[in-house]
Amino acid sequence: PGLFIRSLIVLFVSVSCVSVKAQTVIRTDNNYGAGFTQYIWNTFTGAGDVTNSYEFVPAGYNADDPSVKYPVIFFFPGVGDVKTSDPNSVLKLGLRAIAIELEGGNFGAGNFNFIVIGMQGSAGSPAAEYAAFMENYAFVKFRDKIDFSRVYLTGLSMGGGRIMEYMENSTRAAKIAAIAPVATGTGCPYI
């Protein structure tokens, strides 16, 4: 029995260590006068091919207060920033700019506080993989904090194309308040 219990303790500690290493806080200090931003970099979040993601929460965010709900923006990256182990890749375009604008008060200080999530799949990730990430990870983790009437999608190039493909499914589209695809790269015939 003693060996069995020691084995369980070793297994628990090993699993705990893996979980801790799966999240890294990236702090950027050069936000063009907007102060600093903390992004949580997640690896292997387990939503099919979408295995890396960033999370940004606004100043004053309190995960333990379910009375305050936030709108959420999901960012789908372009092909140049997918499936990389570089945590700064998704911050180069799009995601970091969104957070800087929000933190900088450019929309009216305190009026627009969003949870912002950037996702990474591969160049071949279908929109269904991004949907799986949202449903199986982001919506579960932030369930008590999201204003589900204000879920927004934006993406660049290939990511913009994935948004158009995402919205082709009426069940998924019914959950989205608005989309802002940018320079869409897609083969969708209805563009």
Outline the structure in words.
The protein is of the alpha/beta class and 191 residues long. The protein is 32% helix and 28% strand. It has 6 helices and 7 strands, in the order αββββααβαβααβ. It has helices spanning 2-21, 89-92, 95-103, 127-141, 158-167, 170-173, and strands at 23-28, 37-47, 50-56, 70-76, 115-120, 146-156, 178-182. The protein has a 7-stranded mixed β-sheet, sandwiched between helices. Helix 4 (127-141) crosses helix 5 (158-167). The longest helix is centred in the N-terminal third of the chain and has 20 residues, at 2-21. The chain is globular and about 50 Å long. The chain starts with a helix and ends in a 9-residue tail after the last strand.
Average pLDDT number: 74
The assembly state of the depicted protein chains is single chain
Query: Beta-sheet strand percentage?
Result: 25-35%
The succession of helices and strands, N to C, reads: HEEEEHHEHEHHE
How would you sum up the global shape? globular
Low-pLDDT stretches are 8-21, 29-35
Going by helix content, strand content and strand pairing, the class is: alpha/beta
Helical region count? 6
**Most strands sheet:** 7 strands, mixed
Helical percent range? 25-40%
| Overall number of strands | 7
Could you give the order of strands across the largest sheet? Answer: 1-2-3-5-4-6-7
